[in-house]
Amino acid sequence: MVALFAHYSVVGVLVLMIGLLAIQIVVVGALGVDSTGQRLEDIQPGGARTRRDVGADARVSPLK
Q1: I need a labelling partner for 2 at 20 to 30 A (CA). Which of 15, 23, 39, 55 fits?
Q2: How far apart are CA 28 and CA 30, in angstroms?
Q3: Cα–Cα–Cα angle for 45, 48, 58, nearest 5°?
Q4: How many domains does the chain have?
Q5: pTM of the full predicted structure?
């Protein structure tokens, strides 16, 4: 990164960061979970518990 900055200055570093972000967007878009028409609670991993579930199990408010 330092060599990139030394040779291309701020513009080179910004182009690299924007390029990496674009690659990340493409990868997440290609491999991401399609949640269209589904609640997030329905597609969460089986072992995960929501804060609301924890409060319901303990019979107390989750805010206490």
Answers
A1: 23
A2: 5
A3: 150
A4: 1
A5: 0.50
